[in-house]
Design brief:
With about 425 residues, the chain is an alpha/beta fold. The chain has two domains: about 300 residues, Rossmann fold (3-Layer(aba) Sandwich); about 110 residues, 2-Layer Sandwich (Dihydrodipicolinate Reductase, domain 2), CATH 3.30.360.10. It contains 16 helices and eleven strands.
Length: about 425
């Protein structure tokens, strides 16, 4: 690209989080506030810690990304958002029980000042939650317009130059794509008719894009991964990305599956189960919400292993995914995988992976990176699906003519090469 078109990150960046009081959201917001006060380290964040090679290897140029790519400064971020409960960000963080009280106390005043706006909510889409701080409008269209007003008012009252909206709320029920979602005009008519084909997340996405604001989908909901939203994002010249943050178990799949494939090792079966006890676990205890997550998690292996090209190795894989709500674990998720592979002369082998992780601790730095990179994309004049951000998602969004890339390492190369291009450096093909 012509980096003369790149606008500098001047002024304040408003970050509006859907699901402001949840575990992921409060960990992201509180953690960012701690980092910028010097009270913590941004471990897990590529924008804050990773380096990027520029030029030939012998030039030995490995600056930090944030030192050469014009990203917004953490001090310039202003947080806000929506939630179905009235608790401020501090109360939400205490309830989530991810971060220790001693860490929350360091930014207590800042967190208490972040109060959610009323949310768009329909319990038919998240059956296990009972929202009490919700907008009351006649139609989906009216709800969307109310969100647009929220964005405008937040921008003015907080003196923000730019806004990014990120979905960190719960997984909605499985919603198959229909004709309503394939055309922008049809989608708009359905919103005005208050159709159940329009989810709450679609109201947020349409509102953000209509305001010229980048939208990030962090859950596996059907939302911006539809032709109507692609048409709107191109029309409004707005970048969008999604879907479903790639954190624990699926991150390991996108590491291990490419390893098997590069060594031409076969795969008979992959059994994955999870236990977690936070609000996400409670929501996913509903079969309709789990179906949405299951589709996202199941898509990874087939796309990486290409069974059509390697039927002997990957043509008969049994892949099972389970998520179990277990309240005592709270945010301490455990993802357990049993992997049956085979090698030379079809001799069987096994791998066992037991990943005990804090889901929100893994997700928070992804949220920060995605917000900063989406703002960068907007200032670059990018629009539509941001394929270069696939690195961050379980089910990378793609149009109907594009095969998604799931291999974590290829995704990482694509991410860094895009950054090189943005700053006017040569991309690297690793041929010396």
């Amino acid at each position: 690209m012509d980096n003369n078109q790149l606008k500098k990150p001047e002024g304040k960046l408003g970050v509006l989080v859907v699901g402001l009081g949840g575990a992921v959201s409060t960990t992201f917001v509180a953690g960012t506030l701690c980092v910028r006060k010097g009270e913590g380290e941004p471990i897990g964040s590529i924008t804050q810690l990773a380096t990027i090679r520029l030029g030939k290897r012998e030039e030995n140029r490995f600056p930090r990304i944030k030192d050469v790519v014009p990203l917004a400064e953490l001090n310039d971020i202003v947080f806000g958002g929506w939630d179905i409960f009235e608790d401020n960000a501090y109360e939400g963080a205490v309830h989530a029980e991810v971060l220790k009280k001693e860490d929350l106390e360091k930014v207590k005043n800042e967190l208490e000042a972040i109060k959610p706006m009323k949310a768009v909510f329909d319990q038919d889409f998240v059956k296990r939650l009972h929202g009490t701080w919700v907008k009351q409008e006649e139609t989906r269209w009216d709800l969307m317009m109310a969100v647009r007003e929220d964005i405008k008012n937040f921008k003015i009252s907080n003196n923000c130059d730019r806004i990014v909206v990120i979905w960190c709320a719960s997984t909605e029920i499985y919603l198959p794509m229909s004709d309503v979602h394939r055309d922008l005009g049809t989608l708009e008519a359905a919103m005005k008719n208050n159709s159940k084909d329009i989810s709450p997340s679609m109201c947020y996405a349409y509102a953000a894009i209509s305001e010229g604001v980048p939208f990030i989908m962090g859950a596996p909901n059907l939302c911006i991964d539809i032709p109507a939203m692609w048409q709107l994002s191109e029309k409004m010249n707005v970048p969008i990305c999604g879907k479903d943050f790639k954190t624990g178990q699926t991150m390991m799949k996108t590491v291990l599956a490419p390893a098997f494939k590069t060594r031409m090792l076969g795969l008979n079966g992959w059994f994955s189960t999870n236990i977690l006890g936070n609000r996400d676990g409670e929501v996913l205890d509903d079969p309709d919400s789990f179906k949405t997550k299951e589709v996202s998690k199941l898509s990874v292996i087939d796309t990486i292993l290409q069974p059509d090209l390697y039927p002997m190795l990957y043509g008969n894989i049994y892949h099972k995914v389970r998520i179990n709500y277990y309240p005592p674990r709270k945010d301490d998720k455990e993802g357990w995988d049993n992997i049956d592979i085979f090698g030379w002369l079809n001799y069987p082998m096994q791998l066992k992976v037991d990943f005990l992780c804090k889901d929100s601790i893994l997700a928070a730095p992804l949220c920060l990176d995605l917000v900063l990179f989406s703002d960068l994309a907007k200032r670059c004049g990018f629009s539509g699906i941001q394929y270069w951000l696939s690195f961050y998602f379980k089910s990378p969004m793609h149009d109907e003519s594009t095969i998604p890339e799931h291999d974590l390492f290829i995704q990482y190369i694509k991410l860094k090469n895009t950054l090189r291009k943005i700053i006017g450096e040569q991309t690297i093909d690793f041929l010396e």
